[in-house]
Amino acid sequence: xxxxxxxxxLLREIHRGGPAGREAELALCRRYGPRIRLYGLxxxxxxxRARDLVQTVLLGVLQAAREGRVRAxxxxxxxxxxxxxxxxxxxxxxxxxxxxxxxxxxAAAGGAEAPRDRVDAAVLLRCLSLLGERARRVVELSxxxxxxxxxxxxxxxxxRGNVRVIRHRALAALRACLDAPAGEAR
Amino acid sequence: xxxxxxIAWETLVDWWAGDLEEQEALAVExxxxxxxxxxxxxxxxxxxxxxxxxxxxxVVRPEKLRSLxxxxxxxxxxxxxxxxxxxxxxxxxxxxxxxxxxxxxxxxDARVEVTIRGENTGQVxxxxxxxxxxAERGAVLVACQRDYARFDHDVVAEVRVHDGPRKRPPARYxxxxxxx
Lengths: 186, 180
Description:
The complex is a heterodimer.
Chain A: H1 7-16, H2 18-44, H3 47-66, H4 73-94, H5 103-110, H6 121-130, H7 133-144, H8 149-156, H9 160-179
Helix pairs in contact in A: 1-2, 2-3, 2-4, 3-4, 6-9, 7-9, 8-9
Chain B: H1 9-16, H2 22-34, H3 36-54, E1 59-60, H4 62-70, E2 75-80, E3 86-89, E4 96-101, E5 111-118, E6 124-128, E7 140-144, E8 154-162, E9 171-178
Parallel strand pairs in B: 2-4, 3-9
Antiparallel strand pairs in B: 1-7, 4-7, 5-6, 5-8, 8-9
Helix pairs in contact in B: 1-3, 2-3
């Protein structure tokens, strides 16, 4: 069972169990773990909570796959999304960490962790300084102060549409600058 | 790895910023969970957005400073007065240093401009037209991080206060850094 096996093949192996099933579980965790983490970051805005979400969702997905409750690939994505939504909602409601899961799933999910993007503070500062004043304010208000577009628009006397366009471009420029080899982002 | 209908960068940014209608957001999420190519692209959006969310801005608000301290960040303060060059060794035990640029008269309605540049290179590291300040302490709080060791170690911060009709000359603070 290779890491590139389609979801349907992984689900079948997991349902069959045994060593091949265990391998398929790992492949499924590696595939979906980073995507679930991004969902968690987007909705929970916290790295640790996003990682808790990954573990809780993967536990639910593996259990369902082992029991044969999820068989078709298109069912899998919907199942993952539904579980993500429920867990994220519960996490927000409780404002607490998700329950810890078994060592077995922790081990399986271990391979699924995407590396944290550790951005050098000096590089970020330099890249921000390359944006125009207005673009810098838009991305700071949107992503650092986490204001909604309407609030950003009111604060900077822009329309909501302007804010979105400036934000798309500014974030693309910032990303390109962060990706540039050291010394080239000028 | 391919995708028959990749999600546009603009849509991914809007999704991350919470600017899509619920049904559209759900469709995007379903696609992202099932598509490696688009998940990789949104991770580029996320990386930049998360860097902004978690960054310590060059000039910080007093409340932000308190929340960082409560979160366990080890903060060291370096009081600096205008016109008196300060030599500063970044402590090995500090996560963050705050240069407290003091000696300012700051009304609550003041507008404060701050420019931070290298003393020798003139390179601008930060320029804020409406910077936050600590009115109680009469100070602007400039954050310094170990990563900044790659910048010019000798830095000049210029603070200009606009408060009422009277024009005041800018206050200049010179800080010579030493990083271990």
